[in-house]
Structure formats: C-alpha cells, structure tokens
Amino acid sequence: MSEANAQKVFVAGHRGMVGSAIVRRLETLGYSNIVTASKDRLNLLDQAAVHSWFSEHKPQQVYIAAARVGGIHANNAYPADFIYENLMIEANLIHAAHHADVQKVLFLGSSCIYPKFADQPMREDALLTGVLEPTNEPYAIAKIAGIKLCESYNRQFGRDYRSVMPTNLYGPNDNFHPENSHVIPALLRRFHEAVKAGDQEVVIWGSGNPMREFLHVDDMAAASVHVMELDNRVYASSTEPMLSHINVGTGVDCTIRELAETIAKVTGFSGDLLFDSSKPDGTPRKLMDVTRLKALGWEASIDLESGLRNAYDWFLNNEHGVRS
Hints:
The protein is of the alpha/beta class. It has helices spanning 17-28, 47-57, 72-77, 79-99, 137-157, 183-197, 217-229, 232-237, 256-267, 291-295, 304-317, and strands at 9-12, 34-35, 61-64, 104-108, 160-166, 168-170, 201-205, 211-212, 214-216, 245-248, 254-255, 272-276, 285-286. It starts with 8 loop residues before the first strand and ends in a 7-residue tail after the last helix. The model has no long low-confidence stretch (mean pLDDT 93). It holds the Pfam family Epimerase. This is GDP-L-fucose synthase. Its EC number is 1.1.1.271.
C-alpha cells in the first residue's frame, strides 16, 4: 500500500451522487482509511460541531462534495436556503480543515460559476467577468466563495486547497424527483414512465436546439482524485496566480434533441418526441474548456450512451427508493 493510500481521507457528502462516486473511486484505488459522517452524526451547518469532528478524527485529506443542490425550480423557490447552506457548509469545512492542520482539500464547485454569456467553451479565466444566470445566482455565488476561500487559505497560510468545476453531472445516486431534478434524470424518468404507460409521445420543454455537455459522475470522481493526487508543483504550474480552479468535463456537447433521442433509445421508447417551443430554452450553449485538465493527464472515458445506460440501470434497480 502506498503512503498516499494509507492517509485518512474524509469525504464530506458521501451519500450524494458525487460523494458516493468519490468513495467508490478511492476504494477502487486501494484507499483503506476513508471516513464519512452522515447528517445525523455531523451537521455541517454547525461550526462548533464541524470543528469538534475534525479535532477528533484528524483527516489528512478532505473532499468537499457536500452541498445543497437542485434544479431550476428548487433554485428559484429557495434562493436563501441555497446561498446560506452552501456558504456555511464550505466555510465550516475549509476553516475546520485549516485549524486541524489539514494540508490537502479538494472543493467541488459547479459550471454555473461562469457568466451567463461567457464565451464558449468556457475557460477558467472567465470567472467574474460578467453577470451570472439569475435563476441560480445564489448557488453560483456560494460556489465562487468556496473557490476564493481555497485561494485565500493558500495565499495566507500556504495550504494546498484545490477546486474543480464540473460540467453537468449524471449517474448513480442522482436525484430523479419529477420537479427538482436536472435534465438527464428528469428525462430518464419521463421516458421510463411513458414506456410503462404505453404512451406514444413524450413532450420536452424548449426547441431541443440548446447544446449542453454531460459528464458521468464516475468520470468526475476519477478526475477529482487525479487532481487531488497531483504533485503540488505540477498542479501549481497549471494554474495562473489567483486562479486555482480547474474545469472538469468531456469537452464535447450535444443538443437537447440529441440527448432526448439517446435517452429514448436507452429506455426503449419508440414513440414520438414533441418539443414545446413555447417553453424557454435557456442559454444556447454551455461547454467547458478542459484544456488545462487534459494537460494534467486526465480526460473523460465514459461516452454519453454508455453513461446513460449505467444511470438508467441504477434507476431501475432503485426505483422504489428514488425520491418522488
């Protein structure tokens, strides 16, 4: 066992889609000292409790995958919850890690940190160059604050706190709620229910023309561990001063129409796809520039159809436990 694999690693948010994938990845790589804490054991909104937990368990690496997340409806309905809870979670964890002398932290952000009208594909240096998408601005501001927390502890205390910004994620342990889920789990569930009901058509919001990039969560986990394990000199050489975050994506996008057609294939739906152009399309294109990540020796390996089949299999095996 390597020295790195023997380190005590704390994965915050281990029951979520990303956190559970990181735990799986670490276990596959032979990490034998992974610690987690469920909500009933550790309230990440409680600063004193978080500091006490770090003092007791003394992790050597921390992955911050814990967050309050949701789709457009949830972001619009609960903006105060989204900004408050995410700010508190990341601030409590990063500050407690510093006080417990944890040198290595990986903070997981979101592609929504970039301006609504950022040039495509979106480069890391697009951060703070324009206005954010209004529907998820509170969440985005919290994630930007997490990046700046990491940068600030690095500058002031010499820490090695890194940030990765994933594109749209999907896969096992996703949220398949009919109202609060993101586009892939929402469509997987809708097509699945259409097949069960024998429906001959499925209506999809918008024109189907907007382009989006999607990354399987197991690829995200692999990229996260890869970035965490990079030698500090290699990581530092890949980032500009005051710009410590790295995009994680496939570098490839597709139209919502193409996505829906692939999901229809995966779920066995043979009816018609109807696109309701009276509904808003949102941003025409959102694609991450992953040049920096590729230069650091990592790129995605799970193609969209294979990833969708994996996500759908998980849904079928967990249908009765899926949030509804």
